[in-house]
Amino acid sequence: xxxxxxxxxxxxxxxxxxxxxxxxxxxxxxxxxxxxxxxxxxxxxxxxxxxxxxxxxxxxxxxxxxxxxxxxxxxxxxxxxxxxxxxxxxxxxxxxxxxxxxxxxxxxxxxxxxxxxxxxxxxxxxxxxxxxxxxxxxxxxxxxxxxxxxxxxxxxxxxxxxxxxxxxxxxxxxxxxxxxxxxxxxxxxxxxxxxxxxxxxxxxxxxxxxxxxxxxxxxxxxxxxxxxxxxxxxxxxxxxxxxxxxxxxxxxxxxxxxxxxxxxxxxxxxxxxxxxxxxxxxxxxxxxxxxxxxxxxxxxxxxxxxxxxxxxxxxxxxxxxxxxxxxxxxxxxxxxxxxxxxxxxxxxxxxxxxxxxxxxxxxxxxxxxxxxxxxxxxxxxxxxxxxxxxxxxxxxxxxxxxxxxxxxxxxxxxxxxxxxxxxxxxxxxxxxxxxxxxxx
Length: 440
Known about the structure:
By secondary structure, this protein is of the alpha/beta class. It has helices at about 10-35, 50-65, 80-85, 145-155, 175-180, 195-200, 220-225, 265-285, 310-315, 320-350, 360-370, 380-400, 410-430; strands at about 35-45, 70-75, 90-95, 105-120, 135-140, 165-170, 185-190, 210-215, 230-235, 250-260. Strands 1, 2, 3, 4, 5, 6, 7, 8, 9 and 10 form a 10-stranded mixed beta sheet that branches.
């Protein structure tokens, strides 16, 4: 069979092209595998601070080149954020445990704890929920606190006591108190100075005028029925230090603000997300102490919100060990290097003009066979025989010197024997031809 021998320069450029293509394909594959994954997160609060906080975390992800990115969608309120999540319009959401449909939600982190405060203005005679009979309570945030209102109404039979609840926007609270449209406020807020200062600003306070915090004595009973809540004691002096408000630890309800993920999100992805959030938290809380409230959710099997397996791997310290994570690479690296070595050897062989040590002598002998069939004189046959002898002597000398590239004797003998038969047949054919008379 005949083969086409490409020029060396062409083979060189072909190999360069193949190498460039392979490198480009490898780079694209690497960038695809290591590219950050962008997740959409719905968030909302009446003051807009929740969206700002989540945007700060998203920016920190970018600055630290985290494997996860966040696209923050401000839904306006926690209720709308929960609705977007339950409709699977987003991958993540910051939601309160007592708001919306969370059947498909799995907890990633607790963003904050939301404490229920029922507050009466300074000088009010209201000191218990029973004292609210026939009065109106302003609900700051409105519909987002509907479940709290329902739980209190049911436990304390507030409907029969003709206690009315009026939803208030944040901007209307101060006016509602001053005009005595409401006798008390129901506020759900984190116990952070930023928010406590906002609550104090609802009232006209001085050293003698202090608001009244109303306890929810049946908080534990409500929490047994409504698992989104838990009984919580507000520490003495939380709202105001001197004089202290409350005067002593005060029992109330508390719910949690969660970052939740859809169940369909992969375990490894949520593990990366959880690790990135905890890392960002350590950086951000130096400037904004509110981030200190980011904590791990309950890891109990019967927790109100089940923990996403990816987050559980972080909190339970069951993330992959070094061997688990890199064991495949340790196993595959020798195989990959072997494959690369094979390809380099093939490229080197492709670039070589020819292996004269192994193929040259045989090629020369096979070429002589074609010449033998065409010669017309005895002298030409004699010249060919000398060439054959020269090739055989050279290869045997190489073999005697221990050259491993020398063609073995058996192969040479087979080739030589075939040529001898061809020479013999050609001589016989030339001898039978009639002699040509010289021209006169």
